[in-house]
Design goal:
single chain, mainly alpha, about 85% helix
């Protein structure tokens, strides 16, 4: 008999990686779009048009399908007989809470994409760079919660995530300063 649950776990991981890749690249395209006038002057509209085309293809061909398939295969795995006990584990509640926040992040990215399609850019390039790091924080937190499970002391883990977030934001500021020089 085939262990189909192994396939659902593998597909969950594959589409999760694709989803994060789509999120990382999408927000990078938001940065390019936001900085196009500064970087390309009179040709900004040409670059913005290309960035929007790239965004649409990435978003509707990779990012949205990957989100849906990640949640589908994760749910199939989680509700299987073999893994349903995880629904009672506190770390799984924490993971699912962060996944819910990640879905909200995805929806906010969708709104930013739609705004940019309408010609509305509410955020600067640096704000979009910071926004890009939010996905990195989700990736790190969710990975640590799942891999370390009960080994991760709540207090020290929280402090570690806060310090990691601060270091990411300081890195962005340093990068911004180096770009100006």
């Amino acid at each position: 008999m085939v262990n189909w649950i192994g396939y659902t776990k593998a597909l969950h991981l594959i589409f999760m990686v694709s989803w994060f890749a789509g999120l990382f690249y999408m927000v990078r395209l938001f940065v390019y779009h936001a900085e196009s006038e500064k970087n390309h002057g009179e040709l900004a509209f040409v670059f913005q048009k290309q960035y929007l085309l790239m965004q649409s293809r990435l978003w509707y061909i990779i990012s949205w399908p990957s989100l849906v398939l990640t949640l589908l295969f994760g749910s199939i795995t989680l509700f299987s007989k073999q893994y349903s006990y995880l629904l009672h584990e506190p770390y799984m509640h924490v993971k699912l809470g962060f996944v819910f926040l990640l879905v909200i992040y995805h929806i906010i990215c969708h709104k930013i994409h739609l705004d940019q399609k309408k010609g509305v850019s509410l955020y600067t390039g640096i704000q979009m760079r910071v926004w890009n790091e939010v996905a990195t924080l989700f990736l790190v937190i969710i990975t640590f919660v799942i891999v370390l499970r009960d080994q991760l002391d709540g207090f020290y883990g929280t402090i570690g995530f806060i310090l990691f977030g601060i270091s990411l934001f300081l890195g962005i500021r340093l990068y911004k300063r180096l770009r100006k020089e």
